[in-house]
Design brief:
By secondary structure, the chain is mainly α. The chain contains eleven helices and no strands. Helix 2 packs antiparallel against helix 4 and helix 7 packs parallel to helix 11. The radius of gyration is 21 Å and the shape is elongated.
Length: 213
């Protein structure tokens, strides 16, 4: 059968250009570099707490910041996967890690009681500073993940935005937590978790418009 020339198809084909494939490890490296840059930025702006190395930090300090770090890794991994959608992407790790972080404010409530927790939060002179700093430093990771999503083709923009915000808030709060010497459960369970909730909400609202084609 003779092929019938179609000038329209030929014109469209002339505009095509090869695109480099998206590789997960490239995105993982980008997130790792953004997290490292965030820690360095915290050191330059506020200075990391030297008590971590000298043994002055309590166990809850390591538990809380470890949970934030793990959540940041899990949520960032979910976002990287969403840029290249495929059958079977369920992101259970990010969901369970988010639920796990909820244990911190719950523990603060159970340990201090409603009245005690309110008193601890309302009288904390550094709480709001940690809240704003954790969210602000999270913008470094948020920028990296948004750029990665723009390279890909995420299907669920709402979920991508939510986990982008969660990852950014968790990594930002983790990084700034390395500079914060206050290691009470009331402080860590509220003011260091709050940036994750805030950035998750902001990401859910703002990110879809930034990555939509």
């Amino acid at each position: 059968m003779n092929r019938v020339p179609n000038p329209l198809i030929d014109e469209l084909a002339d505009d095509l250009a090869p695109v480099a494939p998206i590789r997960f490890w490239h995105g993982a490296l980008l997130v790792a570099l953004s997290a490292l840059a965030t820690v360095v930025l915290v050191e330059l702006v506020d200075g990391l707490w030297r008590g971590i190395a000298s043994g002055a930090a309590s166990s809850i300090f390591f538990i809380a910041n470890g949970m934030l770090g793990l959540l940041g890794v899990a949520a960032a991994g979910a976002v990287l996967s969403m840029a290249s959608p495929r059958v079977g992407n369920r992101h259970e790790g990010a969901r369970w890690s988010t639920a796990m972080l909820g244990l911190l404010p719950l523990t603060a409530l159970l340990a201090l009681g409603a009245g005690g927790l309110y008193a601890a939060v309302s009288s904390d002179p550094y709480g709001f500073e940690c809240f704003l700093a954790g969210a602000g430093f999270g913008l470094v990771t948020a920028t990296a993940l948004v750029l990665w999503l723009r390279r890909g083709a995420p299907v669920s923009l709402g979920a991508a935005g939510l986990f982008t915000g969660i990852a950014a808030g968790a990594i930002g709060s983790f990084a700034y937590g390395l500079a914060c010497p206050i290691d009470s459960i009331g402080h860590l369970g509220i003011w260091h978790v709050a940036p994750v909730a805030l950035m998750g909400l902001v990401g859910r609202i703002a990110v879809p418009a930034l990555v939509r084609w």
